[in-house]
Protein backbone atom coordinates (compact mmCIF):
# COMPACT_ATOMS: atom_id res chain seq x y z
CA UNK A 1 0.00 0.00 0.00
CA UNK A 2 2.87 2.36 0.82
CA UNK A 3 4.41 1.83 -2.62
CA UNK A 4 1.14 2.90 -4.21
CA UNK A 5 0.50 5.94 -2.03
CA UNK A 6 4.01 7.39 -1.80
CA UNK A 7 4.45 8.03 -5.55
CA UNK A 8 1.00 9.58 -5.70
CA UNK A 9 1.85 11.93 -2.82
CA UNK A 10 5.16 12.85 -4.45
CA UNK A 11 3.44 13.62 -7.73
CA UNK A 12 1.00 15.90 -5.96
CA UNK A 13 3.43 17.61 -3.56
CA UNK A 14 6.59 18.16 -5.64
CA UNK A 15 5.10 20.63 -8.14
CA UNK A 16 3.77 22.75 -5.29
CA UNK A 17 7.14 22.73 -3.56
CA UNK A 18 8.98 23.69 -6.75
CA UNK A 19 6.78 26.78 -7.17
CA UNK A 20 8.25 28.14 -3.94
CA UNK A 21 10.94 30.75 -4.86
CA UNK A 22 13.21 29.86 -1.93
CA UNK A 23 13.23 26.19 -2.81
CA UNK A 24 13.89 27.02 -6.45
CA UNK A 25 16.92 29.16 -5.48
CA UNK A 26 18.27 26.36 -3.31
CA UNK A 27 17.92 23.85 -6.13
CA UNK A 28 19.71 26.20 -8.54
CA UNK A 29 22.56 26.63 -6.06
CA UNK A 30 22.88 22.86 -5.67
CA UNK A 31 22.96 22.44 -9.44
CA UNK A 32 25.68 25.08 -9.76
CA UNK A 33 27.81 23.36 -7.13
CA UNK A 34 27.55 19.96 -8.76
CA UNK A 35 28.47 21.04 -12.29
CA UNK A 36 31.74 19.32 -13.16
CA UNK A 37 33.98 20.03 -16.12
CA UNK A 38 34.18 16.49 -17.39
CA UNK A 39 34.43 15.36 -21.00
CA UNK A 40 31.42 13.74 -22.57
CA UNK A 41 31.08 10.00 -22.20
CA UNK A 42 31.17 9.48 -25.98
CA UNK A 43 34.54 11.27 -26.18
CA UNK A 44 35.96 9.14 -23.39
CA UNK A 45 34.80 5.90 -25.01
CA UNK A 46 36.12 6.96 -28.42
CA UNK A 47 39.55 7.83 -27.06
CA UNK A 48 39.66 4.59 -25.07
CA UNK A 49 38.70 2.39 -28.01
CA UNK A 50 40.90 4.17 -30.54
CA UNK A 51 44.02 3.73 -28.45
CA UNK A 52 47.04 6.00 -28.52
CA UNK A 53 48.51 7.26 -31.75
CA UNK A 54 52.02 6.01 -32.51
CA UNK A 55 54.68 8.57 -33.49
CA UNK A 56 55.46 6.88 -36.82
CA UNK A 57 55.45 10.06 -38.99
CA UNK A 58 58.28 11.55 -36.93
CA UNK A 59 60.35 8.38 -37.25
CA UNK A 60 59.81 8.33 -41.03
CA UNK A 61 60.95 11.95 -41.37
CA UNK A 62 64.08 11.25 -39.33
CA UNK A 63 64.90 8.23 -41.51
CA UNK A 64 64.47 10.31 -44.70
CA UNK A 65 66.86 12.96 -43.41
CA UNK A 66 69.52 10.34 -42.68
CA UNK A 67 69.28 8.96 -46.24
CA UNK A 68 69.83 12.36 -47.84
Automatic annotation (TrEMBL):
Disordered: region residues: 49-68
Bias-annotated ranges (Basic residues): 57-68
Signal peptide extent: 1-19
Keywords: Signal
Protein name as annotated: ER membrane protein complex subunit 7 beta-sandwich domain-containing protein
Protein source organism: Bracon brevicornis
Lineage: Eukaryota, Metazoa, Ecdysozoa, Arthropoda, Hexapoda
Amino acid sequence: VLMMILPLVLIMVLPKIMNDPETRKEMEQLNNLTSYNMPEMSEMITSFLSGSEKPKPKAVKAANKKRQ
